[in-house]
Q: What sequence folds into this?
């Protein structure tokens, strides 16, 4: 950075507000959401602090986040602390790849998830979600997070390979442990490197070998019988880069695991918080239920039905505002640069925090209130482009955003048309990689009987 430009901007104090001390570093690992909120309140949209000896910046303003992710994204790379931790599982897939590798892979994978293409996935998603919701009712009581995780494993299996979940139970269990390993590795201050043969590391290596072998076999089966399957893995096999070359075998396996991780983990968390929010707001739940019953009755939604379910989509979007599945993510200054009016040294860790921005009164009136009407078509939504980032922004924006919105709308409509969910306790929140409940939430899902399309036979009691 040249001298006269540097003189125009202020250097951040990374030690203000007592953040330099060990005590706050420990609090960061215990409750990063609370620490981030305090930093933003005290210092504004660009807050300097340290994690141990490392300089860091928390960015929570829409204009400043846009700088990092969009207008000057080339000056910020993915944080090496993240890519180094996640590389063993995700390798060169879209989640952590960068540069030409990322651009090439994205150009081949993104067309499979455009808003025009994803409606073809509606039947798979709706049918499998409906089956799991009926299982919840039959069970009497469920662990809500485990229930939505199982459901989304089944949905993702249907989308990726169009096969029943039960046919791959060992792979699902291994994938679950892999994703849990990632969550733990990213949320602990000290984790044993993989070359240290702890039991957890040995299990991770075995699980990863099992999942990669399964993905390779699924790819090979579709390569040998190209017309037999109509699923995402088959579609990836047909994709070509700008030189006309297909993905390599290793890249195909990487992308299968990346898509599974992204589609399962974040979607399951989004479904959990949507169900939880609806259980806490019975009046909103009944308004959305009335819409779902009128449109669906006891049927599963089709792609044509979704346009008649706008309030269900508003509910899901508002849930992702208050409870964004990816509440914070990291970048790293690739060179000396700036954010807003502050100079940023090369190597500074940059925390982008949609969670804090989504709950800021500077961006949203009465921000802690669950209000789906914020997303009504007739409302002023000029804020949405910069202040609402459940899927990130810029070159690394989630390619599955259109699919995720469809999933959330379908889940909300099916959940409410079919019954009423009661959750037994305040789940609270914790930050791992994703936003997760701090404690187990047990749920009872009471059936709502519907006699014909659009007509409910019984009134459902208010949740406790």
A:
């Amino acid at each position: 950075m040249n001298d006269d430009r540097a003189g125009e901007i202020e250097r951040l104090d990374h030690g203000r507000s007592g953040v330099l001390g060990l005590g706050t570093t420990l609090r960061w690992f215990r409750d990063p959401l609370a620490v981030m909120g305090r930093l933003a309140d005290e210092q504004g949209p660009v807050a300097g602090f340290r994690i141990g000896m490392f300089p860091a910046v928390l960015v929570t303003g829409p204009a400043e986040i846009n700088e990092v992710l969009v207008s000057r994204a080339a000056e910020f790379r993915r944080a090496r602390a993240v890519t180094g931790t996640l590389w063993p599982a995700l390798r060169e897939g879209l989640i952590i790849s960068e540069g030409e590798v990322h651009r090439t892979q994205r150009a081949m994978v993104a067309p499979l998830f455009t808003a025009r293409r994803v409606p073809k996935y509606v039947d798979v998603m709706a049918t499998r979600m409906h089956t799991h919701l009926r299982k919840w009712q039959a069970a009497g009581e469920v662990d809500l997070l485990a229930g939505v995780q199982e459901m989304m494993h089944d949905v993702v299996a249907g989308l990726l390979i169009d096969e029943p979940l039960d046919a791959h139970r060992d792979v699902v269990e291994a994938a679950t442990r892999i994703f849990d390993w990632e969550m733990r590795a990213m949320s602990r201050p000290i984790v044993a490197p993989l070359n240290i043969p702890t039991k957890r590391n040995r299990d991770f290596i075995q699980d990863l070998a099992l999942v990669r072998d399964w993905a390779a076999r699924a790819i090979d089966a579709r390569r040998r019988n190209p017309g037999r399957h109509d699923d995402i893995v088959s579609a990836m096999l047909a994709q070509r880069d700008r030189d006309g070359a297909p993905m390599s075998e290793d890249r195909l396996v990487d992308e299968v695991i990346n898509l599974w991780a992204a589609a399962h983990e974040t979607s399951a968390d989004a479904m959990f918080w949507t169900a939880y929010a609806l259980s806490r707001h019975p009046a909103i739940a009944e308004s959305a239920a009335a819409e779902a019953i009128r449109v669906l009755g006891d049927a599963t939604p089709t792609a044509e039905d979704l346009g008649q379910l706008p309030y269900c989509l508003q509910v899901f979007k508002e849930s992702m505002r208050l409870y964004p599945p990816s509440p914070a993510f990291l970048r790293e200054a690739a060179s000396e640069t700036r954010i807003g009016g502050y100079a940023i040294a090369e190597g500074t860790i940059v925390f982008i925090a949609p969670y804090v921005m989504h709950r800021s009164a500077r961006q949203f009136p009465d921000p802690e209130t669950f209000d789906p009407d914020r997303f009504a078509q007739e409302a002023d939504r000029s804020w949405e482009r910069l202040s609402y980032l459940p899927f990130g922004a810029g070159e690394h924006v989630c390619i599955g955003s259109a699919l995720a919105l469809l999933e959330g709308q379908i889940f909300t409509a099916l959940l409410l048309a079919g019954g009423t969910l009661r959750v037994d306790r305040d789940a609270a929140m914790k930050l791992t990689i994703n936003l997760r409940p701090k404690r187990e939430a047990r749920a009872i899902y009471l059936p709502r009987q519907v006699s014909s399309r659009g007509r409910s036979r019984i009134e459902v009691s208010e949740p406790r």
